[in-house]
Automatic annotation (TrEMBL):
GO terms for molecular function: nitrilase activity. It comes from Skermanella aerolata. Residues 7-273 form the CN hydrolase domain. CDD domains: nitrilases_CHs. Residues 314-338 are annotated as: Disordered. Belongs to the carbon-nitrogen hydrolase superfamily. Nitrilase family. Residues 314-327 have a biased composition (Polar residues). InterPro entries: C-N_Hydrolase (IPR003010), C-N_Hydrolase_sf (IPR036526), Nitrilase (IPR023919), Nitrilase/CN_hydratase_CS (IPR000132), Nitrilases_CHs (IPR044149). It holds the Pfam family CN_hydrolase. This is Aliphatic nitrilase. SUPFAM superfamilies: Carbon-nitrogen hydrolase.
Length: 338
């Protein structure tokens, strides 16, 4: 991306359809069209927006969430699949980069996934949240280092993290070291209360300053009727309010436009990409301000697998269930030798 370029971006804060996944996807497609109509080259949606964030797991004990958990499985997104096909087509038709949070179903496990579609409609990044937070660990599996990537898109180099992954400084540094220009942040919104919105703001503004990049953050919104549907207990419902901080932040740590903390809407902002160099001229965390001979990061970016097959010359196969195990490798050598 040229230093003198200007990129228009959009951050979406809308409510999901808690009843039908097709309803939420319809809202996503409508928001993509609206953002594109307003000239945006990038549009960002909240964390696991499709079909919906598992709010039920925050306010109900695990023993009471089986039915809703199964319903989430039934409505989750397969990648690739009909949902990704529809979003890819919309990105291609409108010539816009799309960052979408989904509940991804991979056979018997759900994952908190972040998908980035380039303006061509190509899915250029699918990553999974590396460590679900607290109640989320009953819902999602863990991702791996293969998703800690920055990708080239029509709007520049884009990286992404979900929610409290931003509290993992090494995960953030992995993206910083790949020179991200626009960071996509996604939080659920309508959760925990006003303190969560304050924490989100501190977190994304700090990352913008430390990485010298723009941050586009989207949080979700729940209506009063949706909150009542999730929990009939008035005390528990208080935990499903506030926590919204849809915002666009510059490399100087400033809001490019006022953040959206209540209601539905789409933030639109023009990013002056020249601000990245102006910030990094003073402080480049992975360049002239780094001390790699003292402090550096080791990242295992291999995709994990529960099984790998090693074929012998006679066509027999040996299966290893713990990739990289020295014991397994020695056993394989002995088998092949015998």
């Amino acid at each position: 991306m040229s230093d003198g370029a200007t990129v228009r971006v959009a951050a979406v804060q809308i409510a999901p359809d808690l009843e039908t996944p097709t309803g939420t996807v319809g809202r996503v497609l409508a928001a993509i069209a609206e953002a594109a109509e307003k000239g945006a080259g990038l549009v960002v949606f909240p964390e696991t927006f499709v079909p919906w964030y598992p709010y039920f797991s925050f306010v109900h004990p695990p023993v009471m969430t089986g039915g809703e958990h199964v319903r989430l499985y039934q409505n989750a997104v397969t990648v690739p699949g009909p949902v990704t096909d529809a979003v890819a087509a919309a990105a291609r038709r409108h010539g816009i980069v799309v960052a979408l949070g989904v509940n991804e179903r991979d056979h018997g496990t759900l994952y908190n996934a972040q998908l980035i579609f380039d303006s061509t409609g190509d899915l250029v990044l699918k990553r999974r949240k590396i460590t679900p937070t607290f109640h989320e660990r009953m819902i999602w599996g863990q991702g791996d280092g293969s998703g800690l990537k920055v990708v080239d898109t029509a709007v520049g180099r884009v990286g992404a993290l979900a929610c409290w992954e931003h509290y993992n400084p090494l995960a953030r540094y992995a993206l910083m070291a790949q020179h991200e220009e626009i960071h996509v942040a996604q939080f659920p919104g309508s959760l925990v209360g006003p303190i969560f919105a304050d924490q989100i703001e501190v977190t994304i503004r700090h990352h913008a300053l430390e990485s010298g990049c723009f941050v586009v953050n989207a949080t979700g919104w729940l209506t009063e009727d949706q909150i009542a549907r999730i929990s009939p207990d008035e005390k528990l419902r208080k935990g499903l309010t506030g926590g919204c901080m849809t915002a666009i932040v510059s490399p100087e740590g400033k809001h490019v436009v006022p953040p959206l903390t209540q209601g539905e809407g789409i933030l639109i902002a023009d990013l002056d990409m020249g601000l990245i160099v102006k910030r990094k001229r003073m402080m480049d965390s992975v360049g002239h301000y780094a001390r790699p001979e003292l402090l550096s990061l080791n990242l295992d970016d291999r995709a994990t697998s529960v099984m790998r097959t090693v074929a012998s010359q006679d066509g027999q196969s040996f299966r290893q269930f713990e990739p990289g195990s020295q014991t397994d490798e020695a056993d394989d050598a002995n088998r092949l030798a015998g």
